[in-house]
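Title: Prediction job returns without error message
Component: structure pipeline
Severity: low
Priority: P3
Assignee: unassigned

Description:
Job completed but the reporter wants confirmation the result is attached to the right record. Sequence as submitted:
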Amino acid sequence: MVHRRLNALVGLALAVAAPVEAVTPDEVSAALGPGMRRAVVIGDSISRGGGAPKLNATDTFAFKFFEAGIFTTVIARRAEVAIHLDEYVRAVNHANMFDPWDFTLILLGTNDYTASVPLERIVEVYSQFLRDVQGHAGYRLPNSKYQTLFCVTPLRRAQEWRNHAGYTLPELRRAISNLCGRLDIPVIDGLSLLPEDPTLAKGTESNFFADGVHPNRRGHAMIAERLLRQIVDHFDEQPTWLSRQMGKQAQTAKPATSEPTPPPAPAKVAP
């Protein structure tokens, strides 16, 4: 009991040691445009507030986005994205048709990793998935900046191992980061969203996790703060994905060719 209490105090100290200033609706308006902004989160049970016990919708990080002035649609599936990719793509297409958004946030957990889906297969399918979602970033909403796609690497979890496919969770994170780098997609490090938690253990509640995998109420609140801060800072400081693509097109465009101007004819001299 004494050791568990000490661990809890250490964990809370770590959380206090790295405070993140909450993002205000005014900051969101300045970064994304005035009025209620829109976003979509593509995820799994973590984004839904899953775990034991399951959270209320108002306790999830997506609802915290709403409190900051961002109406958020969550597209979540139970199974691995590498196996059920088509379901995600259909859901994204349907949601974007009726409710376009300012940015897309992909936050997938570790289902592919625990199911030992081969890493090459994940990268192959993830690449096509990102390209499909990225295709929705080609238009501009009223009073907003161009849409941007953000990709979050998997969060930490209580147990990590080299799975039956032969790779570790850090290797999966690196593969996702490298893929997003090649596609020019901003990456948010999932490990940066929650501090290291000495009380983290499988199947039991800790400072920021409900069961060693799914964040609890405190975890979702901190994830929301840190996600929003990085997203707002990105829009404040960096060009969006589409504007970068337009800049690349301008650089590679061939300059217009023109015929050389002939020299002026010699003036006639009166005899």
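Comment from assignee: result matches the submitted record. DSSP finds ten helices and five strands in the chain.
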